[in-house]
Amino acid sequence: MLAALWATEQALTPAEIQAGIGGGLAYNTVHTILKRLYDKGLVLRDVDGRRGAYRPSKDAAELTAEAMHQALDRGPDPIAALQQFVSGLSPEEEQALRDVLDERPSPGGRET
Description:
By secondary structure, the protein is mostly helical. The chain has helices at residues 2-6, 14-20, 27-39, 60-74, 78-87, 91-103, and strands at residues 43-48, 51-56.
């Protein structure tokens, strides 16, 4: 459901989402899932008259990063978890991580 919303810039109605995911789910099921996503703060609802359309509250990268932070906060040793995570990165992912870390300002606001 979120993938369908992330794939467009506009808010979608339950019927549009149902059609976009192939119609394998009943309209009521799509509507129920959207209500649950709304209750969790994962989607926003735009109301235009009686017709409601939904859009994601966060993009895929933001949601993934939030889940990673939550996972680190739950564990007893976040540094060990990060070490395990990094050891499983592909060379391309590792380079992207190095690039991001190199671009961050150092503590105290000074560039390194």
